[in-house]
Amino acid sequence: MKRCLAALALAVLLCLPLTACQKQQNLYSATWFDLFDTVAIVQGYATGQDEWNAQAAAVQEDLSRYNELFDIYNHYDDVVNLYDVNAGAAAAPVAVDDELYAFLRWCKDTVYPATDGATNIAAGAVLRLWHDARESDSPAPPDAEAIAAALEHIDIENLVLDDDAQTVYFADPAMTLDVGAVGKGYAVEQAAQAAQARGLTSALLNIGGNLRAIGTKPGGKLWTAGVENPWGDDPAYIQAVELADGDSLVISGDYQRYFEYGGVRYAHLIDLTTGWPARYVSSVAVLAHADTGGLADALSTGLFCLPESTGQTLAAQNHYAVLWMHPDKTTQKSNDWPQ
């Protein structure tokens, strides 16, 4: 939470004053604590408080809807969400609404190949083991045999999507879905697009560290965000990055959610080739432009869990910018990463 608030603070500090011809535009912000188990902060410019309140309330409503749809731990009345899918899809196809179906189809057909399988929503059997270990009163790594057994049930081809009936079925009864690596970023992108369609022209969404720019600041100045220092040293940020309209910045690191056991840090980002936390880097930052914005969240997780050489190839093929931060405090960037 502190890092999310610090990221917002940097963005606010870097906002330039309005010129005289733009005084009708005022800077506002809204903060929520009940979305995606994180801090959600939206700041933007509007002509008055009433206009801002209406725009912020609509963004909150959109994010709340996706928060319910993507929840794998709770059922909600009048909603068929991923909790319901996990509970029933092994027995029979589960019918879902347009939004959830489109999301699952996107995860299978777009996210999985774009990350070379490293971001796999069908990996719930493995991810649940680590979630339960992390949330335990006495965190410890799961049993190695349990991890090996769970890895037998993460084949995304066993996620059967019927476009005509709009249903979801698990061909493997032991498979479950977990969209923690991609759901938040997808929701942010969809909420941003909806806000723009409603007339919001200047805002920065920061939903648990998933940043997405809408328009620019008055006068055409770009939004600015910081790439966090993953090593816990000063300065708090190792680089400032400018965000144009439609740009997204997402960072995944081993310092965000983890537990320590026997002097070893076990992060929440799991290498699905081994079933254990990935050890390639300390952090990965992904800067995606408007045509790939919804992928930034999935890409940051996927690239964290892949060898850097594989990530460099994927970044070049898909035209997004990446910064790798290594445990020895060196960095490496893709060709498109800003200086």
From TrEMBL:
SUPFAM superfamilies, per the entry: ApbE-like
EC number: 2.7.1.180
Keywords, alphabetical: FAD, Flavoprotein, Magnesium, Metal-binding, Signal, Transferase
Catalytic activity: L-threonyl-[protein] + FAD = FMN-L-threonyl-[protein] + AMP + H(+)
GO molecular function, one term: transferase activity
Signal peptide (UniProt feature, chain positions): 1-20
Name of the protein: FAD:protein FMN transferase
Requisite cofactors: Mg(2+); Mn(2+)
Family: Belongs to the ApbE family.
Lineage: Bacteria, Bacillati, Bacillota, Clostridia, Eubacteriales
Iron recorded as keyword: no
Binding site for Mg(2+): 181, 297, 301
Cofactor binding description: Magnesium. Can also use manganese.
Listed InterPro entries: ApbE, ApbE-like_sf
